[in-house]
Amino acid sequence: MKYVAVHFHIKCTAELLQPSRDLLADAICGCGFESFEDAEDGIIGYIQKMNYIPMATQECIENFPIENVEISFEASDIADTNWNETWENDGFDPIYIDNRIIIFDAKRPIPTLPSTSANSHENTPPIIYIGIEPRMAFGTGTHETTQMVVSAMLDIPLQDLRVLDCGCGTGILGITALRLGAAEAIGYDIDEWSVENAVHNANLNKVKGLTVLHGDSSVLSHVSGVFDIVLANINRNILLADLHHFKDVMNLGATLVLSGFYEEDIPLLLTEAEKYGLHEKDRKIEGGWACLVLT
C-alpha cells in the first residue's frame, strides 16, 4: 500500500505551537490522514496515496480557529517499507498478561510462566498461549495499549459473544477473544498486509471463527448484525471520527474497549462518547497510555 507523508509547517508563536498541532491533527483527520508525528515546526501526517487530495487538505485547514497562525504543507511519497522488519528478523520476548495470557514470538519455542508467577490453585484458569508472527502489521503485544486491551478483555465474559476488532493489525485481539470463548470475531484493517497477517496468525493459533476484511470503518456497512464487544486500538483522531460507526454496530448493552491514545486524551474521548450514549465503566493507564472500557 502506497503512502504519502505530508509535512505541515505551522508559523506561530512558541506557546501556540502545540495547541495548533493538536487542532490541525483533528482538522485533517477528516481528510483521510491516519497517523501523525510532531515535527520541529509543525506535524507530519500520513495518508494513503490514493486518498490524498491537496485541495481537500487545503479546505480542511482554511478556517483554522486560532488567529495569527499560518499553515503550509508539502507532500512526498514514502517508499514501501516493512515497518516490522526488526520484529521479523529479531523477534520479541514473551509478554505475560495478568498471569493468564502469554503472547510469544511464534518463531521461537513456546515459553512458560516464570515460577514466581505460576498459579497452582485448582480454580485458576489455564494459561492461554498466543503465538504471533508479525509481517508488516502492528500488534505483537509489546505495546502498552495492546496489553491493556487484552487485560481488559480478561475482565469481560466473552463466552459465545460476537466481537469486532477495529484496525486489527496482526489479529491479536480477535484471536485472543476467540481463545477466551467468543463465538465469532470480525476484524478489519486498511492495510492489506495486515489482513493477510491476521489470517495467517489465526491459522497458526488454530482458531476458528475469525473473518478479516480489508478497509476502514466503512466496511461495517457490509457486515450483517451487531456486536457484543467492540475493540479499537487505534490513534485518537480515528477513534474520534469512528465512534459513531462503532455505536451503530453495538448490541444493546454491548461493551466498547478503546486504546491507542494518551491519558490526557481521555476527557476529549469521553466527551465525544457521551454524544452517542456511551459511558465509562473502567479505565487503565500504563506508561502514559490509556485504555477506556465503555458501555
3D structure, described in words:
- The chain is α/β, with parallel strands linked by helices and 295 residues long.
- The protein folds into two domains: 3-78, Alpha-Beta Plaits, CATH 3.30.70; 85-294, Rossmann fold (3-Layer(aba) Sandwich).
- Helix content is 28%, strand content 31%.
- It has eight helices and 14 strands.
- The chain has helices at 14-29, 54-61, 85-90, 144-154, 172-179, 192-204, 236-248, 266-274; strands at residues 3-11, 35-39, 42-48, 70-78, 95-97, 101-105, 128-132, 162-166, 184-189, 210-214, 227-233, 250-262, 280-286, 289-294.
- The strands form three sheets. Strands 10-9-8-11-12-14-13 form a seven-stranded mixed beta sheet, with helices on both faces. Strands 2-3-1-4 form a four-stranded antiparallel beta sheet, with helices on one face.
- α6 (192-204) links the parallel β9 and β10.
- The longest helix has 16 residues, at 14-29.
- The chain is globular and about 65 Å long.
- The protein starts with a strand and ends with a strand.
- The mean pLDDT is 88.
